Amino acid sequence: MLSQIKRRHIIVAMLFICWVVGFLDKTAINIAIIPIVNEFHLTSEQSGMIISAFFLAYSLTQLVGGYLVDRLGTRSVLTSAVGIWSIGTVACGAVGSAMGLAVSRALVGMGEAVFPAGSSVAITENFKKESMARPKSVIQSGASVGFAVGSLVTTALIAYFNWRVMFVTLGLVGLALAIALYLVMKPLAGAASISAGPKKAKSEKARITALLKNSLTWKIALCYFFTNIVFWGLQSWLPSYWVKVKGMSMMSMGAYSAIPPTLGFLSFLFCGWLLDRYFHKKEKYLICIGALVSAVFIYLMANATSIPLAFFYLTVSNVFLNAISISVFVTIMKHYPSHSVGTATGLINSLAQIGSFVSPTAIGAILQATDQNYQTAFLAMIGCAIVTLAVAATLPAGSKEELVADQAIPGLVK
Asked: What is the pTM of this model?
């Protein structure tokens, strides 16, 4: 029988693999949209709306998903989430219209919405606060691996088969993982959560009210909102930019696009170590650094004449956007009581994902209004990074905010 220590590391590894496949499913549309536009004769605004359908469902479901994780537990909710997004991915390959594709993407968004909160709760159940950033960074790094592998896998499947086969293949892999995750997360007999304090507050109303009244909740959400506009603006429209403006082929674009997330994987792991070692309860400083550096290098990428140099600048920007992302989730895990981590993550990520929803459509509208002027779109994203920096500078450092959150929520045992 597995020991508790081995089990918790296996769970982290399994959640990492699930999130790799999840990001394959999540981002496949960014490359698939190129042949889809030709097949369905879509405008820039229409294709932006299809991409945004995922984020609308993703944002709305966060509100319920985080709460369900706190109430029902990680095993049932997480495995259901992987199954739902995988069914939605299979459906993407079976639809016959743009509307059907948008609905299928929304289903993918509903399933994936639960994962950030669920994985955070799984970590708080198995790790001490001072060592939570590293396992979270491992899981979060699955996003970068998904991006890196996804650029190669999706372009290869589309090139050798078609975009429909690509979606069905990814969805079937996800369904198999959902079954495996359910088996792995079976609790050990007599095993108890490592986190201190009861799992539930005495009053649900008081617990939710405390989260809403905590200024940290809104500041973190605002930081992540503008970060998501930048990140998903780049992810959604850069494939089209490289092909249409820079004249790259689909295969060369896919190969180059694997570089930024590959180094992003390492940056997640490094940032997790930094957050535990040097930025414990001082995550605001890493967010500020990430926002400033990403803004500078997006500007350099937009003005680079060499494609290899442009991808180098994009890689640096991607690394520091990742630093913001992991810092946001670690802030929630370390500054909120364990029985509210899922709800807090769901609430904050729900508000923040509105930025992900708005970004593809807004960038599409900018391109439509400026006759495909990508420079204007890049300037808009740089502006959002600067706003992230300004908001992050107002975040508290140290444990003061955590104490406010803990004292405001009944039932917490210190």
From this structure: 0.72
